[in-house]
Structure formats: structure tokens, C-alpha cells
């Protein structure tokens, strides 16, 4: 299947260098190699391969390559200075694609500036929209909730194969990547935190509560969550507030990039799948249009809540509640719709017999609505 960023990246490669990041095993290398078919003399080099690393360090790749792909280059010392020099001295007409894991997104934000030389894209897991038109929306949503949106477990269509992949995936991430952010003594606590989060998807996180369960300090919990977010194991959804600094201080909710990792039941898996699709839409609009949009949730001090809120700048555009079967608009959605009538209010229902509009709130078929998102 052709990934949703294929045409966008192909077009932008004619203008600037492209840096592609995303979770491990989300399909970045597959996409990069698919793009090679659009060029006459492409060259793919992976810094993890010792022979390729030697070529990269010596810059001895064919100079007539019309596409140069450097994979995992962020593992090279002073990699940004290196690719800045490569880009500035490249032959006329040579396109450059840099790919790497989620860590590159973290490293890209510090050190040598690449300003004005690249377009950045984030490749997210497969969504309901991306599975169109190959699968009907309902079947696509069901498969994503069961297997998650990473290509290997999703395309295997096997519970056993997906479980084997997931166990190995989480083990490798903890063993290999987290050690670069943390000390080996902390690995056990981080692994326990991951297991706890798998049962708490969609619930506001109490740093104090998690700290008590793990017998560590609340600030350490924040640090560990930052590590897990930096590695694209989880992403945090924070409450919407026009005053952005205040929203950051509020309790976030954690979702997994891999919906199949969720252990908290059908409702939580469905909500997580919706969260991944909505985040992908936000990333796509940010990366392709420069949109100032964000994913949040809304909640009052007395517990009234709506699962998701989409915003543009400081203004809410959508209020979205995710339900497996309940078609009656939730009390929280009704409450916030009354106070934010400018925002589109939707109750996304996985198993819905008939769509309808109740007091300005649309009760929508979740699969059909998600299939119409921009990505």
C-alpha cells in the first residue's frame, strides 16, 4: 500500500531536504525505499550498517545519485553539521531524504541549525482513512482497534503474530532506546510505568498517584513520561485552555501510538484508536499546511469531561466524545456544547444503528467519520 505521505514528500524533495521521523517500525524505511522508484539513480544508506556507515563518513556515495537517503543518521556524532554540509555542497538536482526514529525529532531541536534547508514530516501509524478504499470503514476500525496501526501486526491479521511483535517491540524499545535517556537502574520503574499506563488509557494521570504506586518522586514520573513520549511509545493529550501554560500544568491523558498495546478493554482501545487518528490528522495539517492546530480534551474541576477537543490557535473547532455503543449524547458533551456553540459537537459511536442530530450534537458513525479525516 502507498503511504499517505508519499506524494507530499516526493513533491517537496524537489524543493528542499526532507526529514522524516516517527515511531520505530511505523514504515519510514519502507516509504523511503518506495520513493526510490520515482528516481533514476537513487542511493540508500543506513548508518546502522557498518559498510554504509563507512561510505557515509567518507561521503563516497555516487555523486550522480539523484536521490540520497540517509537512514538512522542521527546516531552519527555531529549529524546535523554533517547533513548541513552535505546539503549545501550537493550536486545540482540531488534530492536528500533523512529518515530516523522518534529520537531524531528530539535531537533535531538542539544544536546546529538546519533552518531553511528542510521540510519535516512525521509518519504516524495507519489510520481508518489510510486503509481506504481497500477496507470498508467499519472493518478498518475494527482491525485497528484489535491490532493497532503499525504495519507488521496490522497486516498480519493474526492475534498471535501481533502479540509476538508487540512483546518484542516494547522490550527492544526499553532495552535499546530508553537507556540513551536514562540510567539502567531506572529501566525497571519505566517498564512498570508502561504496564500501568496500558490499563489507564483515557484517564487523567495523577503524577502523585503514579509516584506512590512506583515508589518514586512525582517529578521522576514526569521525567519518565517525557522519555516515553519522546520515543513515541505514548503521546500525552492535555486539557484545552486559552492560557496555554496553565493547560500544560493540568493532568494529561496518555494514549499509545500502538492501540493494540491497550489492556483496559474495548472502550479504551476504541478511544485510543480515535486518539491516534485525531493526532495523525493534527500532525498532517501541521506538517503539510503549517496549520496551528492541536489535540486536547476538556474537563471541569467537578469532573465534566469530553474525550477530545480539536483547536485552531486559541479557539475550539470540535468537541468529540468516543463511545462504543451509547448513542445518547453524554452529559459532558451537552455541557460543553452549550458553552462552546461555535465548536462542532460530535459523539462518535463505534456500533451505531442510525446517525442523528440531537440538540445540535451529531451522533455519528465513528468509522465513517474517521474515514473522512485528512489523513
Give your account of this protein's structure.
By secondary structure, the protein is of the alpha/beta class. It has 2 domains: 6-122, P-loop containing nucleotide triphosphate hydrolases (Rossmann fold, 3-Layer(aba) Sandwich), CATH 3.40.50; 137-370, no CATH class. Helix content is 41%, strand content 19%. It has 15 helices and 13 strands. The protein has helices spanning 6-12, 28-35, 50-58, 79-88, 102-107, 137-147, 151-156, 159-177, 187-198, 207-214, 218-230, 244-249, 266-289, 331-339, 366-370, and strands at residues 17-21, 42-46, 67-71, 95-99, 118-122, 234-239, 253-256, 293-299, 305-312, 315-323, 344-349, 356-358, 361-365. The strands form 2 sheets. It has an 8-stranded mixed beta sheet with strand order 7-6-8-9-10-11-13-12, with helices on both faces. Strand 9 and strand 10 (315-323) form a beta hairpin. The model has no long low-confidence stretch (mean pLDDT 92).
Quick structural gist:
Helices cover 41% and strands 19% of the residues.
Summarize the SSE layout with pairings.
Layout: H1 6-12, E1 17-21, H2 28-35, E2 42-46, H3 50-58, E3 67-71, H4 79-88, E4 95-99, H5 102-107, E5 118-122, H6 137-147, H7 151-156, H8 159-177, H9 187-198, H10 207-214, H11 218-230, E6 234-239, H12 244-249, E7 253-256, H13 266-289, E8 293-299, E9 305-312, E10 315-323, H14 331-339, E11 344-349, E12 356-358, E13 361-365, H15 366-370
Parallel strand pairs: 1-4, 1-5, 2-3, 3-4, 6-8, 10-11, 11-13
Antiparallel strand pairs: 6-7, 8-9, 9-10, 12-13
